[in-house]
Amino acid sequence: MKYKPKNRDGSLGLAPMIDIVFLLLIFFLVSSTLQGEEAIYNITVPDSSIGQTADGEQINIFLSEDNKIYYQEVEYNPGQLELLFRDIGEREDKSVKIYADRKTDFENLVALIEELKQNNFEQISFSLRERR
User: Where is it located (predicted)?
Assistant: First the structure.
């Protein structure tokens, strides 16, 4: 009796390949962190172990590491604060949230806060990352 080898066509099954792709997709979705708007402007907010989450609509202002100010994806220099407030316009809600990079100059942050106060913005808050 002669041994006859089975015919192998050399093709891979499609189902195991799809399983692997979905497992990789799930792995990367679970392992990645979503940072929201902070990632757009490349801002790293400082860590804090205290504070609370604010709800409601706010005006989000971003202050980057190189002291550029961003509002609705428009870049402003520290000397262009009047232009920034003109773009914000008159709003009933005077609530502002500042996303300041941890390497931002303190002087520019204080200048921004002073301008906000002069323009009758009453509720000013800062974005911090929860310390773990």
Answer: Cell membrane
What is the C-alpha to C-alpha distance for residues 19 and 23, in angstroms, rounded to an integer?
6
Q: What is the pLDDT of residues 24-76, one digit of tens each?
A: 998 887 776 555 555 555 555 555 555 555 556 778 888 888 888 888 888 88
Sheet containing 123-126, strands listed edge to edge, beginning at the edge strand earlier in sequence: 74-76, 69-71, 59-63, 95-100, 123-126
Q: Alpha carbon of 65 to those of 37, 90, 93, 103, 130: distances in Å?
A: 15, 28, 28, 5, 20
> The pTM is what?
0.55
Q: Which CATH architecture has domain 37-130?
A: 2-Layer Sandwich (3.30)
Domain ranges (residues) in the chain: 37-130
